[in-house]
């Protein structure tokens, strides 16, 4: 999957994010820089991402269409 994002205040313009599944992991490429990503859902409304060995816990709510906010 490939996504294009533009954040308010981002002078560089549109960011291209490509996501590819690699077994039980993902390869996420942002503007040509690749990251190895593992995702876990330890509880409802929480996702834990391990990106190149760095863990990040994110909270949010899933809304219509499977989007996290």
Give an account of the 3D structure:
With 69 residues, this protein is mainly β. It is 0% helix and 61% strand. The protein is built from no helices and eight strands. It has strands spanning 2-5, 15-22, 25-30, 33-40, 46-51, 54-59, 62-63, 67-68. The strands form two sheets. Strands 1-2-3-4-5-6 form a six-stranded antiparallel sheet, with no helix packed on it. A hairpin with a 2-residue loop joins strand 2 (15-22) and strand 3 (25-30). The radius of gyration is 13 Å and the shape is globular. The protein starts with a strand and ends with a strand.
Descriptive keywords:
69 residues; mainly beta; 6-stranded antiparallel β-sheet; 0% helix; globular
Question: How would you concisely characterize the structure shown here?
Answer:
The chain contains no helices and eight strands.
Per-chain topology:
Layout: E1 2-5, E2 15-22, E3 25-30, E4 33-40, E5 46-51, E6 54-59, E7 62-63, E8 67-68
Antiparallel strand pairs: 1-2, 2-3, 3-4, 4-5, 5-6, 7-8
Number of strands: 8
The major beta sheet can be summarized as: 6 strands, antiparallel
What string, H for helix and E for strand, traces the elements in order?
EEEEEEEE
- Unreliable residue runs: none
């Amino acid at each position: 999957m490939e996504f294009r994002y533009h954040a308010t205040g981002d002078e560089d313009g549109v960011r291209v994010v490509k996501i590819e599944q690699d077994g039980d992991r993902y390869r996420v490429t942002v503007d040509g820089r690749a990251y190895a990503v593992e995702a876990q859902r330890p509880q409802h409304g929480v996702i834990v991402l391990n990106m190149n060995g760095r863990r990040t816990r994110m909270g949010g709510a899933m809304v219509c269409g499977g989007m996290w906010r």
